[in-house]
Specification:
The chain has about 130 residues and is α+β, with helices and mostly antiparallel strands. The protein has one domain. The chain has two helices and seven strands. Strands 2, 3, 4, 6 and 7 form a five-stranded antiparallel β-sheet that branches. The protein has a two-stranded antiparallel sheet with strand order 1-5. β3 and β4 form a beta hairpin. It is globular.
Length: about 130
């Protein structure tokens, strides 16, 4: 352990990580995690938008550098799981950069998926 409780952490990419390139193998501070975009789901567009898409990705923390053990634990909890990125498009020549990212644990993602299926079943008159 070094000064101020900081420790050196060596980040690594999970095998499915696709948000880095071979020349620059570390992640940007704005996106310090591995991810792999799985699918995009068209949603009812937000007010004033032509389209709104929810992009779904698994994520895994890429903790590289000097952090306290508490910071390491917080990064692992924050970036390990599933992310939904809401992407809004206002039309040709007017791309909205108002992207919202919703992160959750894998367990929370499974619960959300089950709740969405149940809500869709109710809305469509399906019974179980």
């Amino acid at each position: 352990m070094s000064d101020n409780g900081l420790r050196d952490y060596e980040g690594y990419h999970v095998t499915w990580c696709t948000n880095y390139d071979t020349e620059f193998t570390e992640h940007e501070p704005e996106e310090p995690y591995c991810s792999k975009q799985i699918t995009g789901i068209r949603l009812v567009p937000a007010d004033g938008m032509v389209t709104t898409t929810a992009w779904v990705s698994p994520t895994r923390a890429f903790t590289h550098g000097r952090f306290t053990p508490a910071e390491h634990v917080e990064r692992e909890a924050r970036y390990n799981g599933v992310e939904i990125a809401l992407d809004h498009w206002a039309g040709p020549g007017d791309y909205s950069t108002d992207e919202q990212k919703i992160r959750m644990s894998g367990d929370a993602a499974r619960s959300l998926a089950a709740a969405l299926v149940r809500a869709a079943d109710i809305e469509q008159g399906l019974t179980r």
